[in-house]
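Workshop exercise sheet. Pairs work together: one partner reads the sequence aloud, the other fills in the structure field after running the prediction. Swap roles for the next sheet.
Pair: D.N. / O.F.
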Amino acid sequence: MTESIGLFYFSGTGNTQVVAELLAKAFEQHGAQVEIVRIEHVLQGRARFEPEAYDLVGIGHPIHCFDAPRIVYDFVDILPRAEKKRTFIFKTAGDFISVNNAGSKTAIKQLECKGYDVFYDRIICMPTNWTMKYSDEFSKQLCYVATAKTEHMAGEVLAGQERKLRINALLRWITKLTSRGEDLGARFFGMFLSIENKAICWPKTRPL
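Structure field:
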């Protein structure tokens, strides 16, 4: 019987956070104790990652250009070594294309090299927040389906069922090059961004 689960996630726009919370609720309905922690809080020293504190570890992230965001790799880099710690991956995407199956492949390999037994990997589709907007009705349907999928996922994970996403080797190579290019481009773009400490004051409305 799984007694404790640690869910560590990064959510840039909120979709992955919603899925993490749905998963936590589903696990708790099965009697498990769940702790939800933001990945950036671990990186900032505001939270700790201790694999021995959990029976299961879950890592969640959105898919950025067919891969995990850089912050997820930073998180994996600082993780302590573990002894066959049972680990599962949950990730979010705004579409159903199969190339997204590669979204955690490199991170999983790095986790396995550190002794984490990644036996489960699943994508939950959520309303898109990139280049286009789904209709409100379709977005609601995706959220309803996400609830059902997380309940199903919780049952499979607790039962120890293995689920691994597969992708064609050529597509995997193409997606890897594309994600590397996006990562470098994002870093270059970020060099030209700055934040100014200025207060924004709304103009007072004139009386009619």
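Discussion prompt: The longest helix spans residues 136-158. What would you look at next?
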